[in-house]
Amino acid sequence: MGAARPVTALVLGLLGVAGVLVAAHADPVGLPQSRPPTTHHRAATVENSAAVEGGTTACPAPARDAVAVPPLADVMARCLGSARSVNLGRAVSGAPTLLNLWASWCAPCRQEMPILDAYADSPNAVRVIGVNVRDRSSSAAALMRDLQIGYPSYADNVAAALTAPPLLPLSYLVKADGSVRRLQDVLVFRDVEQVARSIATAMSS
Q: What are φ and ψ of residue 7, in 5° steps?
């Protein structure tokens, strides 16, 4: 019993030193953290998100006299790389436009996006605009930079307005007359010719 007492005292002493060291390096608990007012904090978060999304292509600005595409007439969407939302229905009106719904976590989207980018640069191509859905906008912008995608993308979910099924990728053709048609003949585009044929078929129907 006599030998156990020095050992016990030594252990208790070591525990006491450890407790002091932990207390010295621990973050304070229960202290109020200084932060800007809620409104300014939210505004800064939006601006910081836009900065993180830098390097993406600017989205088309709605023309003053543009008539909104009916299914998207009430949709406000933010372009990747911008903190400002615009009326998507007016932004995509006036010219045939391929809308492609995608996400950074969608493997088929990653395969398809370079094909759509190549199509967008081909002769007689219609305008191509991406719509990033159910995703982190910073991850979306990073993917666009990694794949060197030249067409712009909006960062908001418009799937409900298009009554889109819960799958990706999805492509829609917005015609000059404001009608919207889903491209269903090819689930995932594998080459530029497939994109051109699918759009030509939708344009003629």
A: -65, -45
**Residue-wise pLDDT tens digits, 8-55:** 443 434 444 333 333 333 332 222 233 333 332 333 333 445 655 766
Whether the model pTM is above 0.90: no
How does DSSP assign 106-157, residue by residue? -HHHHHHHHHHHHHHTSTTPPEEEEEE-SS-HHHHHHHHHHHT--S-EE-S-
Please work out, in degrees rounded to the nearest 5, the angle formed at the alpha carbon of residue 61 by the alpha carbons of 45 and 136: 35
Give me 152's structure tokens.
Answer: 């712009």
- Whole-angstrom Cα distance, residue 10 to residue 13? 5
- Please, which residues bridge with residue 172 across strands? 99, 182
* Residue 64 to residue 27: CA distance in whole angstroms: 54
Ranges of the chain whose pLDDT falls below 50: 4-48
